[in-house]
Specification:
The protein is mainly beta. Strand 2 (about 15-20) and strand 3 (about 25-30) form a beta hairpin. The protein has strands at about 5-10, 15-20, 25-30, 40-45, 50-60, 65-70. It is about 0% helix and about 55% strand.
Length: about 80
Amino acid sequence: MRQEATLINSDGRDFLVYVKDLSRAGFTLEHRAQDLRLGEIVIIRSHHGTEARCQIKWTTEFEAGGVFIELPIMPD
């Protein structure tokens, strides 16, 4: 899997990311060296408009992973 999505960080800035892995427990993202912080609360928005509030649990220079805080919200 490699789906394009938007990550909105805790400062309100948005970044292009790619969802590499997705499960009920969490996700893995590919990113372009954005400064994601451990424990940071973010919103991930799919290209369909579905949003999920998440927490970053690990990060490397080009990947990050986390867990869902709230179930994804489908657009109206």
